[in-house]
Amino acid sequence: MFEVLVLVAVVVVLAQFNKRVIQLEREVADLNANSASQWRATVPEMARAEPPIAPVETPLAQAEPLEAVPLKVGPAEPEILYAEARPSEPVEDAVAGEPVESVIAHDGTPEHQERTSSFSFEELFGRKLPIWAGGITLAVAGMLIVKLSIEAGLLSPPVRVIMGSIFGFVLIGGAELALRQEERVRDDRVRQALSGAGIASLYASVLVASNLYHLISPLAAMLGMAAVTALAMGLSLRFGAPSALLGLAGGLAAPALIGSEEPNIALLSLYLALAVGGLCTLSRGQRWAWLGISALVGGFGWGLLLMLGGALSVPETISVGLYLMLLGVALPMLGFAGNWQARLRLITAIAAAAQMAALVAMGGFAMLNWGLFGLISLAMLWLAHREPSLERLPPVGLVIVLLLLGVWPDPRQDQFALVMAGAGLIYGLPALWRLWRAKGSIIEAAEVAAISLAGLWLPLYHFYGADGFTPERPTDVRFGLLAIAVALIAAVAAALGWKQAERRDDARFAILAIAAGLLLAFAAGFLLPDWLEGDAIAAVGLGLLILGQRAEDKRFEPICWIFAAVGIASNGFEEPWGIEPPWQDALQWGLLAALAAAFAWKARFKYGRIVAQFLAPMLVYLGLAPLVADRFEPLIAPVLLLALATVPLRLAPAMWSVMVVISAWAIEPVGQWLGEAGESLFGAPMNVDTVPGPDDAILKLLIPAASIGISLWFARARLVKYERIGGLALGSVLGVIAVHSLYKLIFAIQSDFVTYGLAERTLWEVLLLGAATVGWKLKREGVSLAFLGAAAAHVTYYTLFLHNPLWAEQAVGTLPVINLVLAAYAVPAAILWAVERMPSVRRFVSDRAIAIGWMILILLFAASMLRQLFHGSLLVEPGLSQAEDIARSILAIALAIGFLLWGIRTEQRDWRIGSLLLMLAAVAKVFLWDTQGLEGLIRIASFVALGFSLIGIGWLYSRQLAPSKA
């Protein structure tokens, strides 16, 4: 009885689900019966708004009947207007698209109620549910009668089953009586409830006879359920959709409700095909889309259950396969789906193909299963040819079969080749036939390309190498030939469309040509030596680039750049230099450089050309490097740069590429020099053994710097300003570091920095100053300012501040006046002198700054000279004699007087202020410090000298600052 209760529950749910369908039928009947009455409320308004319509001369055969409707429109208007009796049409809600419900009022006139998504309490519980509840109650009552007879032992099992069947037919007879007494019953749901209860009773009788009493075999029970289903479909034509709904539920649930330890799969498949086909046919006849769709969904559910039930024998596999073919191809054509008809066929065909693929996989990829999949593939192709809206079916089937081939575990080579060839023929030939015809599209091109690519990749996945992807040369040869063969398929397909003008409108030609190129690249990888693989891939990309330009198809170029990039990258993963013969490396990278140059020449993509031109010299360098001795490898790039500069073309990216190689070689020596220079900022000396050696300085820095300068000169007309500035900056940096490193060899300072440090720095600063002078003479103001700034920075930081002989151990020489102090301070003096006479610099340097610089420089120079007179070469030796101390004061006063006289002469107040400050410092020193240790005449002489100095300064100030007289 459990199955019966389940069936009753299903009936209740489905009855509620189909209330809209029942309501729609009733509304159509009401509208047809009251078509004339529907316009009575609107005709008076029309009559008041418009004059009477004149009769139209119409042939009798074509005239539609007119109905005279009496109208009361006023005393001055005609009493009768003739309104056309329009045919009844279902009225739909403008928003929800639902029909308007028509009900009869108490006075006999029709009223219209708009259906809404919810019902009132009275509508639901007073009008709708009781009738259906009554039908369900009758069905349950029949079951209870049978149950009571069983408990009382009144009836034998056969009699009980017969009485249950009789009860079901009686209920169906009651439904027929209700239909015949429609004028009295006036409610469709009465007959629908009675017929539904009768069908449920018949289903229950068959199930009880089979499962409970075992009076009939499962086969007989299946036939009985099929008969009841057929009866339900027949009754639906008379009583409406609920009977069809019960037939749907019972027909599809019958195999599950009828228990059988060893079900007959073939018979079950036949039954399901007939049941679903009958339901679809009824759906088409009654235009019930829900019925056909539901039947197909249930049919596919059974298909899945049949496959999950266990291993299938050959007949069972054939029956299930044929059932899936019918379900995916034939049966959807019998059902009604309205505007969804094409989509329904597409979905069912895809679902059938997917379940067929599952059947193949679950059947151990047997050849029989593959044959069944081939049949459904042919059916899908037939559908796609028959219905243009199903053109997406073949690609879906192709994807499914390729996935199946990919997951096929341990296939035999002969079977795999047979299936692969069959799939290619089934899907490839129709696609190739349609490819360049009127209905051809990118879908067919994608199919042919997918077949070609899968023809290599799938065997490669399954059979390449003994241990997965372990390369073996014989295997490589076979796969190389296979790659060429499948590449020809795509190439021939593309060639067939070469003369087609429409090939430029879409990507068909590009897809096929690129697929052929990709397969050729694989063939090259299998057939050529490893060191030529990258060149072959890039060559294929170049071929596609030229083909795309000949075909006037811009879709090629982005893919071509990918080929080029992969080719270069694959070369980068080869063995390093020295493993293979030098000529091999040279040929490998040289060919790749030529291909890059060809890309730079032929490509249309601007930035791609720049990249190719940038890479070509690097690849040339990589090709020449194995042929040149290691010591002279840094000279390859400078020679290439000079060669590029002499070509009468704009090759700025290529020149910068070579400069990158030059910079790469310079990284080590430049880094070494910069490290030592950084430490020198904190006082550590740059000795000769801490800077780049002669080889590095000449080969990696000096010669490259010279080549950069010469190349910039040759190509100056073909370079923009920022390119020239960038190259000049790089060459200048390399050149300065090289010259400085080589200059260190002159003094070769290692541990004697104290002895030669000042002399080395002074000469270096003189050289910088001399370079600035040359630049100025050549009217290269920028160059001159650069060297002048370098000299000023160097002398200020290192000579005047960090390593000043007044406070750092630096030997200046033993001769008075004629020593390094004079030379060291001559450099900053020359710089200040030059700054005063350079208008471009004077815009940024004030007169006060220059005056202060001069005064500081004079003070330091005078102090250094005075110190040298008393201490000799090392000015930092300890000790300060009384005479030196007094000499300092006298020198300060003398300098103060000199500053004052110069300030008066040049009318510069800054010098006079400096003089005053220096004098005050000297006076303070004399009074607070110098006179403390003096006695006698020396002390008196000091004060006399100081007094006269003060008087003289005061007189000069008073004279200079006195107001002028007439």
Task: Offer a concise description of the structure.
The chain is an all-alpha fold.
Structural class: mainly alpha
Overall pLDDT score = 74
Order of the strands making up the biggest sheet: 1-2
The span between the termini is 144 Å
Helical amount:
over 70%
The description of the largest β-sheet is: 2 strands, antiparallel
Rg to the nearest angstrom? 54 Å
Quick one: how many beta strands? 4
Low-confidence stretches: 1-18, 38-128, 466-472, 962-966
Question: Helix count?
Answer: 35
Please report which band the strand proportion falls in: under 5%, 5-15%, 15-25%, 25-35%, 35-45% or over 45%.
under 5%
What's the number of structural domains? 4
Shape: elongated
Topology:
Elements: H1 2-17, H2 19-33, H3 43-49, E1 66-70, E2 80-84, E3 100-104, E4 110-114, H4 121-152, H5 157-180, H6 182-185, H7 188-212, H8 218-239, H9 241-257, H10 265-286, H11 289-308, H12 314-330, H13 341-362, H14 367-386, H15 393-407, H16 413-435, H17 442-463, H18 473-495, H19 508-527, H20 533-550, H21 556-572, H22 582-602, H23 606-624, H24 636-646, H25 652-680, H26 694-714, H27 721-747, H28 753-777, H29 781-802, H30 820-836, H31 839-842, H32 847-871, H33 882-906, H34 909-928, H35 936-961
Antiparallel strand pairs: 1-2, 3-4
